[in-house]
Amino acid sequence: MLFQISSLIGKPILCLETNALVGTILDVVIDPDTGRVIAFKVSISLMTKPKIISCQDIVEIRNDCLIIAKESAVVEPKEILKINDILAKNLKVLGNWVKTKQGSWLGKVEDLLIESETLALIKIYVQGNALNLGFKPFLGTIKENQIISADNIVKVTAAAVIVKNEVVPKKKTAAKEKTESKVKATVPEPA
Question: What is the pTM of this model?
Fold first, then answer.
């Protein structure tokens, strides 16, 4: 089953051991090397720093909540080295800028599509609000929204998710469009 991360943000985390609410989902942590969700960043209360739940400690991911077996699964990020490294380097996908290998800014990642069984990243949804002036983008409305397959992601850095150049749609010229419409118009319909 596929699900969008935005549908989980803010949802409760329930514990089977205590039959209680232990927090809410803030974000996901994606391993930039494998493209898989490896943890969920969670809020326990307004007064504490966010904590982490490793995907190994999750019993079930549902549309309305996340279920864990034991409350001890909620830990400080520094307790899991790989996750701590990813967070320390700010290697996030959700909310990060997106640009091509050539340097064209495409927008910001507004959502992620995840496969529930493997927790693999399938697609990123890019909100096309980047005005490309040759350096860090400014807000504007000249780029279109795009859905980009995870296969097109080259790497994730703190500054941007780098994607292949081929993801940028090529625009047809007006002359080429006219030629194509003439060719289509002269083709006889089947009897």
Answer: 0.77
